[in-house]
Records
---
Amino acid sequence: MFIDEMKQAADSYGLVLSETQLGQFNRYYELLVEWNKIMNLTAITEPQEVAVKHMIDSLTAYDASLFTEGATVIDVGTGAGFPGLPLKIFAPGIKLTLMDSLNKRVRFLQTVVDELGLQDVACVHARAEEGARNKAYREQFDIAVSRAVARLPILAEYCLPFVRRGGHFLALKGMQYQEEEQEAVKAIKVMGGSETQTRPVKLPGLEDVRAVIDITKGMPTPKAYPRKAGTPAKNPL
């Protein structure tokens, strides 16, 4: 059963989940598998794999000093809700915005939020480049998170414009994280990023290399950024 796999994966990673949280993760899993039959949300559906590669992987972004009560968090290009929804289940006091460019995924996310009874979650249909030009979102967040969306130079242009000065952008990255960090030095600087810290991550039972890259926003993002939709990916800084 998924709930058992989730508990075991959390224990192995050193996280303590309440019965309520385990129930929410379980319902999230059920909805993910159910909706995945009618739309492409994930290639991973086995309980143990979802527990480790989606849920716990998302929680690697958690840092108690950042995810405090009332912290505003945006998950850019959230897809099926990773890492934003697992972080919200684990740290229910955060105020979360889930942003995705595909409306049917946003409908799925809203269903999960409603079914799990999560408070202070907004599901927004927008491309990152457009969302970051909207005054309601630009430089409004303590934390931006993103996982499996694009390489870091592109991702920095998508995400840093959402972060307030003094806030953080957390990028969840795979085995090429060191290469990506080197590639992204210019983009991070242009977007107003000041300091970058990398925290290598080991998931329970997996040998692959992962890391969370934590970029502090030191200066406002220049008005010219992000460039119009599609440009960052075609022509990275």
---
Amino acid sequence: MTKLEGVLPAIRSMKDFEAALTSDHENIIFLETRLSQVKSLVQYTKQKNKKVFMHVDLIQGLKVDEYGLEYLINDIKVDGIISTRGNVITTAKKHNIVGIQRLFALDSHAINHNLKVCKNIQPDYIEVLPGIIPSILKEINEETGIPVIAGGLIRTKEDVKNTLNSGATAITTSNKELW
């Protein structure tokens, strides 16, 4: 399994994509893409010897069902999938690619519900948003034993340092200054 650690560039635009390709980062997270762009983006990224993780819920034009996932996994050859949907992560794991369960720490009820889902499906990683609440990151990691990735509202180098010191193995950010 691919080990995700440190800062992970999250791509929202072509400018971000170009910057990520020239960076030293081995792994790239794609957010907010269009289905018509996915194949060429992944091919170009792989030519630069980087691994591709797609947030499938944010691919415009893709129906996130078994067939859409098979297309991304078998034809496009993504290295990992991020989703808020447990069934999507289960499919990723069934196909031996990294499955990252994204969860939103909105309130205690949401956290408890998501912890049950994560314990049941056993994703490879859990991405927690917002990622700047140290006690929540630690709690989720301790409850599940699954590595935690933090994302959202991480704005400064100090935020990055504090988040990684709070037990997150990695952070995702679209802020190029933090890459």
